[in-house]
Amino acid sequence: MNLPVKPVCKTGKIRKDGSASIGIQYCFTSEKRALLDSGLAIPPKYWNKRRECISDNLPEIYGSPSELNQRLNHELRKAEDIISLAFKRRETPLEFFKLYYKPDQSFECIINEIEVTDKEKILDDIFLNKDIYFQIDDYIKAKTKKVSADMPRIYRNMKDHLLAFEKFRKKQITFESLDIRFYEEFIDFLTYDYVLARRKKQIVGLKTNTVGKTIKQFKTFLKDRIKKKIIPSFDMDDWIVLEVEVDAVYLSVNEIKTINKFKLI
After folding, report:
1. Helix orientation angle between 107-128 and 65-88, rounded to the nearest 10 degrees
2. What digits encode the pLDDT tens for the residues 105-136?
3. How many whole angstroms from its chain centre is CA 228?
4. From CA 88, how far away is CA 90, in angstroms rounded?
5. What is the pTM of this model?
6. Residue 242 CB contacts under 8 Å (≥ 6 apart), including other chains
7. Cα gap 172→166, rounded to integer Å
8. Of the chain's two ends, which shows fewer C-beta atoms within 10 Å, N or C?
9. Cα 193 from Cα 257, distance rounded (Å)
10. Which H or E run contains 259?
11. What is the pLDDT of residues 28-51, one digit of tens each?
12. Which parts of the chain are beta strand (E)?
């Protein structure tokens, strides 16, 4: 890609030692451009404007022309790589270039800095975004690799129940709206009004243990967000997890062995 990047000797800014810095200029448009210091400096008369490089007759005191031009070409390639990356990331190229181009850093170091910034931005988004469903999705994503294969489905069921309740009562659910009244209304909805999806015959209301499982997972999610200081702590002591004992009918090993002895033909 032919990027509008070129080296420019800043002849208008002469230093006390008679040298002028060489800048890397990026023209995003004719009006929008940036000129950043490359870290190199020479007396202006040794700048070959036509070839856009340092002249071969540069006095030895300022360094080797070939080595300095090699460094300059490296800075140009680095600038082009940064701008190419900006386009790939759909960033504003000019601002991205001004933010991340540094003459004293390799492109690999700049990439690492960008990755760190991205991670910090993601964390900021997580902490600043108080939408309850955004937080549930983040919770599911964080837990998926740490729990059994069936647990993400249970988390998603909990989210679906919450969305259905929000639609039913026609009122947005926020972290601020969570109190004992919310808990009681949520329990009533799941028990008496929730319609099970994808059933040939309409079934209304969930079983007590299913309701309890939803409340349990919702409380666990909220405690996780409180622990991470994403939301402030609040009282959930009265949020009882409903549960009924289920009679489990099973045979002992000896009973199974006895049955195996019988010929049932």
Report:
1. 30
2. 899 999 998 988 888 887 777 788 899 999 99
3. 16
4. 5
5. 0.55
6. 187, 208, 209, 211, 212, 215
7. 6
8. C
9. 47
10. helix 253-261
11. 988 899 999 999 999 999 999 999
12. 5-9, 20-27, 33-42, 47-48, 53-54
